[in-house]
């Protein structure tokens, strides 16, 4: 043991201790957050889709009494295949989800450690920054109060994105660093897109702001082309998600893209913003029943850095404020202040909503201004790392240790109180299989076609036209086989218990063995309607089939991912293990 400590140092054990600390709420059993059941149904939907032979799963069969739900088209879920595969292998639904939470915690720590180590080239500072970001109140609240799976998964990649931007935008850059920054930027954006589209929207706003601030540097030839390459690679890696998403958003009318209609238009987004007092509290309650305004939070330890940097600006001499760390501190402070302001009810959200149709749509879908706490958390963590570097350089390592210890202690107290309150106040919930969850789970019904009344769904619903007799029917997920006879001399409509999405196909096999293609469109209450030919006698099969251009997009993304993995292996990881990275 001593030889191991001597060889690798104690930093790895501190990371393991940090992982244990942030997973304390898991010991309470299974916690029921605001959106937990929605995401449990997503896992169950992927599991059921895989079991029925879909890959990738686009229309999840388990939802709405078997009618199916197209949430996989609108919501990136590549990471949820991990708990879904566990569940498919026999692990309980809640066990699969808890394992996913553990993986997210570990991944957040690993990505933070790698990114901050590369930015500051100091293991002590990297660990300090990792602790601050991992213990950030908003991230923990997303995990254990809101159950915001997409958002807390997306937060894994924000430090990586920050590291990529330091490589692309700093003055002293080399060609190899720019190339690496381009690749990491694409990877970071891919992780965010595949996790949470709204976080991607927020990140794009901040990227646009940074590009405007650094416009001269961005338009340098090598940097500009690095950004272009990053955008192109991001598109290629995500084409399998973006093409179906764009297809439905442009050709269909769903609650998520209906600007006129839906509960989001009615709510006053200004009132949903947080107050400065809410963002800067020391102690946060883990009560999932609190109002939307109280869901935002950053923590006093992180927000204190925005004040300390102003004090340092007065204390340091002009010549001391010219280095890379000071420039990074200023940029981090600017991004942090901007994102904190946009998280509050003081930002003019309602004025923006009323300005024009496009901005109105973006603001409506944002829902809650405090989502900008994601960016604020990483920016303030980096700012504290900059301040610690400045303290060490000016007042030596002992002052740095005292500073880091004090800030970390405040963070541990805040996170510890939150964890304890989670164990005390968290709503316990058992979900071994989907039978423990209402498949009509309230989710805002964002991805239902407009005017759908889900309360009227029943798996027994089958509406047939005049002269049609159904003799048998069988269901396998979203695939239906119906034996029927149309005694009428005209084509007759049949509405089946499947929610209509573009991609449904129907075919018939007559008693003579003849194969015929049937017309499909949208029927009453947005269900699948098929047309049975006159004097038809045989079996009808209704199933979902991805358009050919979706499959092409998926193949492109697969090849792009294989090429990117090769580049990562050669250019970044260079065959090193994580131990070697942390030891540098």
What does this structure look like?
The structure is a single chain. By secondary structure, the chain is an alpha+beta fold. Helix content is 56%, strand content 9%. The chain is built from 24 helices and 9 strands. The chain has helices at residues 2-8, 11-22, 36-51, 71-74, 81-88, 93-120, 123-134, 137-146, 149-154, 158-169, 175-193, 197-213, 215-218, 221-237, 239-251, 263-266, 276-279, 300-315, 324-342, 349-353, 357-366, 373-425, 548-573, 578-583, and strands spanning 463-464, 468-476, 479-486, 492-499, 504-510, 515-518, 520-522, 527-532, 537-544. The strands form 2 sheets. A 5-stranded antiparallel β-sheet has the order 2-3-9-5-6, with no helix packed on it. It has a 4-stranded antiparallel β-sheet with strand order 1-4-8-7, with no helix packed on it. Strand 2 and strand 3 (479-486) form a beta hairpin. Helix 2 (11-22) crosses helix 6 (93-120). The protein is elongated.
Which short descriptors sum up this protein?
alpha+beta, about 575 residues, 9 strands, disordered N terminus, single chain, elongated, four-stranded antiparallel sheet
What is the structure about, briefly put?
The protein is α+β, with helices and mostly antiparallel strands and 584 residues long.
